[in-house]
Design a protein that fits this description.
The complex is a heterodimer of chains A (277) and B (298). Chain A is mainly alpha-helical and 277 residues long. Chain A has 2 domains: 51 residues, no CATH class; 222 residues, MetI-like (MetI-like fold), CATH 1.10.3720. Chain A has 11 helices and no strands. Chain A is globular. With 298 residues, chain B is of the alpha/beta class. Chain B has a domain of 158 residues. In chain B, helix 5 links the parallel strand 7 and strand 8. The longest helix of chain B is centred in the C-terminal third of the chain and has 20 residues. The two termini of chain B are 31 Å apart. The chains are: A mainly alpha (277), B alpha/beta (298). The structure holds adenosine-5'-triphosphate (ATP) and magnesium ion (MG). The site of adenosine-5'-triphosphate has 11 residues of chain B, from helix 1. Chain B: Its EC number is 3.6.3.-. Chain B: It is found in: Cell membrane.
Chain lengths: 277, 298
Amino acid sequence: METLSENKKAALLSVLLLLVGLFVWEMSIPAQKTVEALTEYERLTGTGQPKAGVPPPSQVIAKAWEQLSNPFYDAGPNDKGIGIQIGYSIYRVLVGYLLAALIAIPLGFLIGMSRVAHKALNPFIQVLRPISPLAWMPLALFVIQDSEASAIFVIFICSIWPMLINTAFGVAGVREDWVNVARTHELGPLKTAFTVILPAAAPTIVTGMRISIGIAWLVIVAAEMLVGGTGIGYYVWNEWNNLDLTSVIFSILMIGVVGMLLDAALGLLQRRVAYVE
Amino acid sequence: MASSFLSIERLTQRYPDGKGGEFTVFENASFGIEKGEFVCILGHSGCGKSTIMNILAGLSDPTSGVIKMDGQAISGPSLDRGVVFQNYSLLPWLTTLKNVTFGVAARFPQWTKQQVTDHSIAFLEKVGLTGDAIYRKPSQLSGGMRQRVSIARAFANEPKLLLLDEPFGALDALTRGTIQDELIKVWSGTDQTVFMITHDIDEAILLADRILLMTNGPNARVAESVEITLPRPRTRTTIVEHPNYYAIRNHLVQFLGERSVLLAGESVGDETHRPETVRIDKTEGAADAEPLLRAVPK
Ligand SMILES: Nc1ncnc2c1ncn2[C@@H]1O[C@H](COP(=O)(O)OP(=O)(O)OP(=O)(O)O)[C@@H](O)[C@H]1O
Ligand SMILES: [Mg+2]
């Protein structure tokens, strides 16, 4: 054991924990009695009804296998593969998120560079930021009259704040020495912004982007439960209505995995723009 | 004096003193620097050396006064005036080489990428940076290497005037020595003018053609301009044997030790300050310089 590296030990421990967890889960679910085995009393009172219990992991794994081996099938509005559903969700998240970045980053630059802009816009940011993104939903549905666009709008509004605030903070905190280097080299404002301020503030900006994508992924599930139609959030809700708990658990896991991948992508970007002073 | 390459005319800097009033860092300071000269400025901490330098660099504006370079009043920073900052101010996300090409590309926009790179590498070589060090980030370099990059960046731009604010302040004595030599090597053979702040008397004597001495602030003055009558090329070991060396050094030590305080100014209103020229030469045939030695306490 001593010869194993730290990483290997950790990996081993993770697998062990997973197996123990699955085992305990599997064991703690009482085998469902068949109808013949019910006592007369149970049959009369209905307490022994074969109700939708929490499925054991083996069932979830079987479901996952079935779903993931054909993720993109499309058999009508209420029966689409998990891949299609997740695809819809990712599409909405990315569109809303990119629109937010398109506005938040330039605006953050402005706020970070101009004290007047900061003071003028700060009250609005402070009031708008704490609003739960879902609180916008009714208004969005009414104004936009389109559930798809409304969901995207909700993503937009929830992912804009961390990016805006971090960009402004990062830009305002760029060391004066570096700006002076740009000045003594007679760089114009645009050149300074791109070659000095942007790289200097990039780690802070990307941290904001990473927080935003996390929030956007949290919010899309809730938003899709509200607007319905397609998407992983809708899928979870639909399977709950079907009392298909196996699918519910499977899709919860999928939400986790996709969220992790989105975060990892931004983590990669974060490492690329990082620098040591 | 009016025809100096760089002329500082009645420069005044005041700052609010935090109590509603204002204090004067220096007032009506005037001096000139000739083309190709290496000038060091010595003075106690807080007398306003960096303030003068920032104004010369165009990074800040004086309360009043003008600076003329080649007869033109300067305004704002310019590629004609290169700056080596005390804390190196390298861009940490760029490699060493990119830190230099960044400046060169700004200076010579018509050059090709290859020209820019070659020119930058040549200047990095002049300060002793070669090999894979130039592809590393500043955070992976030692303090001495970083300062070399900063010097290379400034010289590679071939500015008419180079401004150095205590470039070796953070370095150990040995590294200081080597980089001083490199600085002289890069500077000699050009017609560049250098204005450098330092706290180190020996460094100033080794490098400078002329040393400006500042009295303590507030109301500091550039009181004297001491000519360094030591022949070039100079080395640390040979200059100490020159008859002028100790006379000059004593003069500087005396000034910084006593007279910088005694002369510490009061507000002088409208009077213009010009530094008094001090020429100390004890070599034979220079006896006529004696009257100018009056500033040297016997
Ligand atoms: N932005 C500013 N606002 C107010 N006072 C300032 C400002 N910049 C400098 N000063 C004051 O001006 C005086 C001169 O400062 P300066 O930095 O030029 O000193 P210095 O000679 O370079 O000192 P050192 O040798 O320690 O670097 C100091 O008293 C300082 O407190
Ligand atoms: Mg200073």
